[in-house]
Amino acid sequence: MSTIPITFNETIPSYTVIGGKERLRTFSAAGLSVVLLNRGGRYARRHIFDDFEKTGFDSVVSIEPEPAHYDLNDLSAEFPFVRFILIKGTISLGDQINLAVSELNTPLFYVMWNDMKPIAGGNARRMAERLITPVNGAGEAERSPFRRLCTVPVIQSSRFETIPTLRAPGLRRKKMHVMPLSSMQEGHFSLYPFDGTGIYDRDRFIKLGGFDGAFKSSYWQLMDFGFRAHLWGEEISVTQKLKLSYESEVPAEDDSTGDDFNRFYLKNLAPLFRGDCARLPLGRFPGYVLKANGGIIAAWEEFMECRRWVYLNRYRWKCDPTTLADNWNPDTGDP
């Protein structure tokens, strides 16, 4: 059994840092940094970092899984605003993002992959300003704090075809399912950021607890993050002003069930929300133990751990999954 994190980044994996001691001085501070995830392959790394420098991001954190690239010292000297994080062993997608966030201090951070290419968005300062100063329904700018936990871009394939990356929850025969949608309008909501990609509010991300690193499946890790965000009243939505394209094949999502689904179920679907708080009733255990692997004792320990976690966070719930799905507009993606 893996303990559910109570505070952000409770268990930091072993890692080494190279470079990143200087802040980018090409532009004045934009308040926006990049978290670059590496999927593998020999992409033009100098070109990627050169583009980041021209865009004016405050800094870059590049997650480097083993084996480390041989050119890191040269790249660090050439791009001193890039902090390379060398990971020992294999860690989940969410843990990579959590780790990068702990190395950043800007209000916003943009998660993207090394096989992605920005095709719309402008410079970093302009990207940040759009989130700091949203436009209301009357077309007038209104100053406000960052209102979204995560702003997701429109993502296209290498053939520049828009990918249905938005996700909406639905109920079918009392079972939760997820529907893929294409983004057609500004501000449409998504259940989670596809492939982890998007601009996150760092403070909101940390207060939410970040990603739960105990999930082995990236799909269920993202589902857990997104459901928790929406159930706790946060916003994940798209902007048409940010666009990325994959330079390789679009990654497939593996939604097969197993231990990760069981953990997701206990944290997000099983709790009851009544009044102003949530609880995980003991009456949910008999149904859960039929799904769980590893025997009744292990199932009981996992159930009770989740029950304690729900209790500690009970006042953070704003709705239940049924209400969330019932109120989500399947035509627009809006909850």
Q: Would you kindly provide a written description of the structure presented here, covering whatever features stand out?
A:
This protein has 335 residues and is an alpha/beta fold. The protein has two domains: 232 residues, Spore Coat Polysaccharide Biosynthesis Protein SpsA, Chain A, CATH 3.90.550; 68 residues, no CATH class. It is built from ten helices and 13 strands. Helix 6 packs parallel to helix 7. The radius of gyration is 20 Å and the shape is globular.
CATH architecture of the largest domain: Alpha-Beta Complex
* SSE succession: EEHEHEHEEHEEEEHHEHEEHHH
Q: Please name the fourth-level CATH homologous superfamily of the largest domain.
A: Spore Coat Polysaccharide Biosynthesis Protein SpsA, Chain A
- Rounded to an integer in angstroms, the radius of gyration calculated over CA atoms is 20 Å
The chain-level structural class is alpha/beta
Give the neighbour order of strands across the main sheet.
Answer: 1-4-3-2-5-10-7-11-6
The helicity comes to 25-40%
Q: CATH topology of the largest domain, what is it called?
A: Spore Coat Polysaccharide Biosynthesis Protein SpsA, Chain A
Main sheet? 9 strands, mixed
Number of strands: 13
Low-confidence stretches: 134-145
Number of helices: 10
| Highest-level CATH class of the largest domain | Alpha Beta
Question: How many independent structural domains?
Answer: 2
How are the elements arranged and paired?
Blueprint: E1 15-19, E2 32-37, H1 45-55, E3 60-64, H2 72-78, E4 82-87, H3 93-102, E5 108-113, E6 116-120, H4 124-132, E7 150-156, E8 166-172, E9 175-181, E10 198-201, H5 202-208, H6 218-231, E11 236-246, H7 259-269, E12 272-274, E13 277-279, H8 285-291, H9 296-312, H10 321-326
Parallel strand pairs: 2-3, 2-5, 3-4, 7-11
Antiparallel strand pairs: 1-4, 5-10, 6-11, 7-10, 8-9, 12-13
Helix pairs in contact: 6-7
